[in-house]
Amino acid sequence: MPEMPSPLLVVEGVSPNQSSRDYRYKRSEYAARGIAEYWIVDPILGRITILEWVDGFYEEKVYEGEQAIASIIFADLKLTAAQILQAN
User: Looking at the domain covering 9-87, what would its CATH class be?
Assistant: First the structure.
């Protein structure tokens, strides 16, 4: 059975007592799969971290409060960090 293609976007919620895994270890797993963009939703710290695959590395952007989210996958997205965190 052929391997499934990688998703374009992954959204992860930070698990209590697992922030190291969610912020560090998954980054290398997703890089190995070639995932173009992934989001880390952290209700504890009240922020959204978006990592975009650029020239072989993830570039990180952090969004808080009423900052509008900028996504390379969903260019027309109209959400703020606060709106995403409220839905959590």
Answer: alpha beta
- What does pTM read for this prediction? 0.85
pLDDT along the chain (88 residues), means of 10: 79 84 84 92 94 92 95 92 86
Q: Please list the residues that pair with 39 across neighbouring strands.
A: 11, 50
Domain ranges of the chain: 9-87
